[in-house]
Hints:
The chain is mainly α. It has helices at residues 10-18, 25-35, 41-49, 52-62, 76-83, 85-107, 114-134, 140-149, 152-160, 162-175, 179-187, 191-201, 206-214, 223-238, 254-261, 265-270, 272-281, 283-286. Helix 1 (10-18) crosses helix 12 (191-201) and helix 7 (114-134) crosses helix 14. The longest helix has 23 residues, at 85-107.
Amino acid sequence: MTSDAPEITLAGLGEALLELPTIPETLTRILELLEDPNSGARDLAAVIRSDAPLAAKILRLANSPLYQKNRSITTVQECVAVLGYRTVRQVALCVAVVSSLGKECDARAAALDYRDLWRHCVTVGAVSQELARAVRHESPETVFTGGLLHDLGKFVLTICHPRHYADLVVARRRSGLPLVEAERRDLGFDHAQAGGALARSWNFPDVLIAMIAGHHDREPSDRSVALVGLADHLANIMAPTRSDLGFSGNEDDADALYSQAGITRYQVEDLTEQLEQAIAAVEPLASLD
Length: 289
């Protein structure tokens, strides 16, 4: 390991990132909308329009095969009207978070390929949503968001200790340990806990905090968390990452993941084509540019 071994608590991680100057005002405003029961489509459209890069990504996604429509969507207001307030709000939240953290990774010359990490997160989001629909979850959009943000903690650790965390990922491969175990031995906590700490410090809704913090738990707190955990496993098999990001799907207890999510292997096999189509459809969201 390198000499920048972190002497930091989970709470300290959240506090450190709160001080970063690049956390966008857009994110703060979206989080305020999440907590405001009187907010609506007009308010969300106004927030997105004020952030040109975010608006461009939302429009690109709205016109992707994921949301097949009979006409081209050309304005943010149309996006919200056609795709739905909840869907656009959730996607806007994810894009705002990851765009901000991506800039910090660049600024700190992060060794970990965070763009590849985000591509994985997008894949997990797509798979999570399809699994949620298959089990008739009450809010597939929310599970989609949990999948998109599930590895938020890897961004956190890469930003706070870029060289050390990259070395940890490499060392874990040599040792044969699952990444979360290597993190716990070296840091005292894992990336899921780190992501949960940041989400909590940014006042994310409890349901998102649970999915981020618990996606590697052996006993998930609810089905939403379990669906994201299974989606993470399936994404590693169906769309392996281009670089070594510490993923190790072959080390997962697959039987437990299926059982906890409330879906069988045979059901998932029947969904293979739908899952592949969903992964291809969210490609526009995978770009941070």
